[in-house]
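Posting for a labmate who doesn't have an account.
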Amino acid sequence: VSKPYGKKTTWLINPQALELFHLAEYVNKDRKEKTKPSKPWQDYQDAWITAMSKGILGGKVYSKRTIDDYAHYVGVYAAKHKALTAEKLQIELMTVPASMFAKREKLYKAILCFSKFLIHSDLLPKAFIEEIKPLYPKRHLPPKRPTVKEVHIPALLKVCETTQERLIVILLMNTGLRASEACSLRWG
């Protein structure tokens, strides 16, 4: 509440507001002490990798490839930075060129996954996820999608050297399968 005091204005603070202020200070102090890791956060990487492989993080079991990728990106981050903060993540993301969208996205997702593990373990405040949300990389260029126009298909089939190559081109053209899906097809 404002109160005139000569040529100045003074403020009267409600006793309940003071109590809330001191209570918030106490809670934040307690939270800081609770989330302070007893050892460096990098030492929790092995437990995080185990949690990803067992499906402890949200019930989803991560694939071996995803675990390896995430561990690599978190390892690279940990080698450069001693603390896990939004500012340092932003610095790290800025070192990756914008044209390398996939690399930036994987780095972001790896740090996000690791931070969720640290939050679950009470080693990082929950507010960290909200702090890094604006840092999610956005694709500035549309993804490259090379296509062959219909008039060029006969020329494409003509340059195929074997019957198997022709079969693959016709299969991809008529079904719309991805290359990885076509590679995993079996006769059975």
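Reply:
Got it, the structure tokens are right above this. The CA atoms of residues 34 and 122 lie 7 Å apart.
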